[in-house]
Each structure stands twice: as structure tokens, then as C-alpha cells.
Amino acid sequence: MSKYMDTRPIGIFDSGLGGLTVLKELQEKFVNESFIYLGDTLNFPYGEKTKEEIVKVSKRNIKYLIKQDVKLIIIACGTATSRALGEVKKIFNIPIIGIIEPTVEYVKNLNISEIGVMATNGTIKSGAWEYYLKQEMPDIKVVSKACPLLANIVEEGKIESKESIDVIHSYVQVFKENNIKNIILGCTHYPLYDEIIKQEFNYDVNLINTANAVTIYLKKFLSEKNIESDKRSFMPKIVITKQEKDFERKAKDILKLNNCKIFIKNY
Ligand code: DGL
Q1: Positions in the chain whose pLDDT score sits under 70
Q2: Ligand 1, from 57, 75, 188: best to mutate by most atoms within 8 Å of Cβ?
Q3: What is the pLDDT, as a whole number, of residue 50?
Q4: I want to staple 242 with a disulfide (CB 3.0 to 4.6 A). Which of 42, 181, 213, 266 is the partner?
Q5: Can you tell me the distance from the alpha carbon of 69 to that of 125, in angstroms, rounded to the nearest whole number?
Q6: Domains identified in the chain and CATH numbers
Q7: Cβ 61 under 6 angstroms from ligand 1
Q8: 240 pairs with which residues across the strands?
Q9: What is the pLDDT of residue 2?
């Protein structure tokens, strides 16, 4: 008997380039799936918005992706996951996966007693990482650090700059002081600093990229719900809500693709 297949695409959203670190991983690991990525550049940065604003923009993003006939939605954004996932799950009748739950599951298997979290102001203020980590591992020590400048530096295309090295240097001190060797990159822009952060620790650190955790989670989810696809219909379709200088080049760099076409959606 043949398995039921669902060839509809998977929808993903973030405030800009960051969620592409998740898309890259999914695009490589799920070779039969198609992806539609929405980068809400008009409303970047999410990290400085209120919970109400994040719920509002998340609802709009989800409505747009549902109109594209996606089979499920991945919120490839720590801020929108921590601020809006609970609300939007109540409203929409489509599976919505954030980055926190898969990552907490992943961390649980590491059997560690201390963990660091780097994320945006909004995410750290929400307390979501600490809350969910402690739900699963009540005794874990969580050291959180808001890193408000990092997502902006990425969008400005300045990762390879002295500024970014200096900023990382100051943000990671708290982890060094607390001898934290496992750090969750709780904002999807941050894996782009992977090398700079590792250098800061002389490579004696384990950086947890939420994209890996989402990959493991999604594999199980698609198979359990019997909604895998057996054929990719198109290369990732990337839509942004405001034209941004060099977005296409930056997106190609992150995705390691020679080609990717960017569409503009006017909200
Ligand atoms: N990539 C985002 C996150 O994971 C949002 C960064 C921002 O827009 O401030 O939190």
C-alpha cells in the first residue's frame, strides 16, 4: 500500500535574513520538500517590539503563508516563537512549529547541568527559554544574555567587521565568568556568528544551532503525521516585505546557493 504524501510546501518566516539559517538546514536535509520563506523586512527588528506587535506581525505572516497553501509553518525566529507561538496556535488551524520546543528536546538529550542562552531583547524579556528549559530540566542553571546589536549587524551585512568581533567579545563575558560551555543561539541570526563566537572561546564551546534541533523535530513530525512529500516541486521561494539592498546576494551566501530569486510582497 502506498504511503499518503503531501507535496504542498512548508512555510517559514522570520524578520529578515536570520531564518535563512534554518531554511538552509531544512533545504539540505529534506530533499523532497519545497519551502516558501517569508522575511518580514518591513518590520525588522522583531527583537525591539512589544508582545502585542509581535503577535500582530506573526498573524499577518501566517495568513500570507496559508494563502500560499503551505502544509505547515515553521517560525524560524526566536522572538516570534517566544512572544507569539502560544497565541497563534490558538487561532490558526494549521501545524505551527517554533524553535524553542525542538531545541529544548535536543538539549535534554545532552545531559548537562548548565546552559547559556543568547537571544534578542524581546526573547530574553519573555523568559521563554528559561521557562521551557526548566519545565524539562528543573535543576538546570540557565544564564541568559540579551544581544540586541547582533541581528542588526547581520542585516547591515557587517558580520565580518571589527564591530562584530568587539560586540561578541562583550556579550560572551557572562558565559566565561560562569564557566558555561554550552550555549543556545536563541536567535536565528546568530549561527552566522558561529566562527567568531568559537574563536572567543578558543573553540572550547558547544554552540547549539536551533536549525539542527528543528530538523530532527520536523523529520519525526512529518513522518508521524504522514505528510512527507516524495518530490521537491521548486527551489526555495523567498519573499520579503520590503526591498532591502543586497538581500539576494546575502541570501545566496547564507543558503550556499548559486541562484535564488527574491520576490517582494507589499503588505
Ligand atoms: N531572527 C530573529 C530571532 O530569532 C529576530 C531578530 C530580530 O528581528 O530582532 O529572534
Answers
A1: 1-3
A2: 188
A3: 97
A4: 42
A5: 34
A6: 10-98+212-264 (3.40.50.1860), 101-210 (3.40.50.1860)
A7: no
A8: 39, 264
A9: 56
Q: Is the pTM here over 0.90, yes or no?
A: yes
**Ligand 1 centre distance from Cα of residue 3 (Å):** 37
Retrieve residue 95's grid coordinates: 501545524
Q: Which pLDDT score, from 0 to 100, does residue 1 have?
A: 44
Sign of CA dihedral 237, 97, 57, 164: negative
Distance of alpha carbon 230 from alpha carbon 259, whole angstroms: 23
Please tell me if the CB atom of residue 123 comes closer than 6 angstroms to any atom of ligand 1. yes
Q: Verify whether ligand 1 is closer than 6 Å to residue 46 (CB atom).
A: yes
Quote the CA–CA distance of 121 and 114 in Å, as a whole number.
21
By annotation, the residues acting in catalysis are: 77, 187
Map the chain to HEC letters: CCCCCCCCCEEEEECCCCCHHHHHHHHHHCCCCCEEEEECHHHCCHHHCCHHHHHHHHHHHHHHHHHCCCCEEEECCHHHHHHHHHHHHHHCCCCEECCHHHHHHHHHCCCCCEEEEEECHHHHHHCHHHHHHHHHCCCCEEEEEECCCHHHHHHCCCCCCHHHHHHHHHHCHHHHHCCCCEEEECCCCHHHHHHHHHHHCCCCCEEEEHHHHHHHHHHHHHHHHCCCCCCCCCCCEEEECCCCCCHHHHHHHHHCCCCCCEEECCC
Question: Residue 10: which of 214, 241, 189 has the closest Cα?
Answer: 214
Beta-bridge partners for 182: 206
Q: Ligand 1 within 6 A of 187 CB?
A: yes
